């Protein structure tokens, strides 16, 4: 007994897991047991594995609904927080920066984010407005996170990763649930949802959600005082639902719709066009509203073939100091999956997308711009399995085409090998593109103003201009991975990558003759005009590794260890590495994401109806420089922790207490890349009650 | 003292304490749901009578078919060679309609839930025992479906389907089953 305790202490304190699983890996052969004995075996509801991804030749992770529940997440970025290889950092109480494999920022542009297969990134800046992207959290069935290029099947923008949120189908029985959350930073979240079975073939669910968040506390910044209560509280309202209709035994139709209205307070440091001509603190409210409708039709065309057709339309209206925009987008896509021969699986398809936008003047965009774009895509992928050799090979290509005749070809080759049932080795080589955003091709944004200095009699304004010649960014990615089920209760997943980037965006100054500087008049005030233009001039590489270990230490304790490392090295091919001009973007791309991320998640079932989740997480330092002003941004490396304790009081009622960022009174996680006002996130706690019947 | 140190100390102690309490409540075995389901399927087969003339010889195989992928499917592979009465189990994953007619028992993975009805329309059902693992399996026309109840694994039997088939379940099996009438009355 003493030895076992000692061993257990070693296991837990040193996390020397491989030494320890053996004694717990006792397995009985159920098939030798009688029915009566089998009936007595107690089963703990183990979270379902998404088998589709466990053998995939890609660095994939599935966040299950159980994980989302046990994490206590109240928003989608929170649910992504400790996912292997994902850097989810809170910018302020209502904004997040979510990145995979580097390049993180509030306006990250190298990820494809989708909900139920429908892209939610905006072509305006190729990123996601996370603050306007919410859902009824308990109705998310799973989140698939793919690190690395996923362009062939998923689509453009999947340069460094894909996040696909899948909402659940309606239940096969009538149900309802009310969830109320309240705490110091979360003023309230109220969520009501219901499922209704109309008939054997038709079922539906609906939800409504309202959320109110408290503001944060300012961090110190250039000319900004720390410790001030900030104007960044927020109110959200959203409702939606879906209908699943099995039309006949081989076809079914899903229709889903959501709409939201958010009022989000925020602070910026906007350029002033009057004295003192400095970027100054501005309080502002973001009014966001939007709606989406989506219909998906499936038809089974054979034992191993299937057809899918999807249509969607969405719009958003966004009014704030940065961006006042109305955008409408419509999409039609089809996909056909079939097996032309034994051991072959082919998926091919295509789609057409139309998107129209109108941007009206705001505090940094002085001219209105309109645009409408048609684009199309075609893709095909074949997976060949060699059962004798336990090998499978995948080759595919996707072509994205645009109105102006441009097209982007994105191929990939993948292989996976299972030398035994416990091990999968995989490798992939792929090319992905990020198509230019609207901002990069057509929009003019004023970055900053500065007062007259020295001999210059006029103030200066710096503006970035989109440029119609700006082209797609490209990555060639080389990946290797290893999955190993070392024991029934211990599994490892390791992935390593080397990404070669070319044609990444920089903003470079347009040169002018210093003796005759260009003048721009804003209002009545003349400015010396310094214009920067988007240019495909950055190239370089990143490399890294991601490690995940899951250890079911006992029936009632599960540990998950995550570590990821990345190193990014870039340079401007026109200016080299050491030029001050154009170094901002390189510095931010390289160092705004931490080199190291790590976390430990212990999930314990203290009793039949009591759960404890302890999450410790580490994030390395972020520090980058803005040139030519040499403004430095620095965020220290940090350790923090979340705790969740829940009690299932009855069959219907679950109560939970969640503590967030418990190790510090307040801390700073991120600074937005443009017009930032640094914020500190406070320690917080909330209570949640879920009543379901 | 630095609050960081205090709290990380508390966490460390909590981790160790939890580790120890777990050990005291050391589990007899860590029940793997998939292998439990596989054992159920084996036992259900033992208590099922297929119609006369299904087998011509006593040592002919019982063909256990699987459709779809998943951890239960992997577990079922371990049943290969085990005997049901005198019939050794042979595993098969049919991909063509004709192959299904050779199956005595068919397990359909829950991932294929969208295909339940399609399959039941396609397959000769009279002497095929279908087993599934999804809330919509029975209402789609499946015969036996797993269900968790009070932390135990149980199974439902679709009485409509059973009556219209040529299969017979032993009374022992029926005693353990949750008997349900198929809602919606397909077939």
Automatic annotation (TrEMBL), chain A:
It is found in: Cell outer membrane. GO terms for cellular component: cell outer membrane. One of its GO terms (molecular function) is siderophore uptake transmembrane transporter activity. Keywords: Cell outer membrane, Membrane, Receptor, Signal, TonB box, Transmembrane, Transmembrane beta strand, Transport. Residues 228-662 form the TonB-dependent receptor-like beta-barrel domain. Residues 1-16 form the signal peptide. One of its GO terms (biological process) is siderophore transmembrane transport. Its main location: membrane. Transmembrane segments: none annotated. It is a multi-pass membrane protein. Residues 53-162 form the TonB-dependent receptor plug domain. Belongs to the TonB-dependent receptor family. This is TonB-dependent receptor. It comes from Shewanella gelidii.
From TrEMBL, chain B:
Pfam families: DUF4154 (PF13689). InterPro entries: YfiR/HmsC-like. This is YfiR family protein. It comes from Shewanella gelidii.
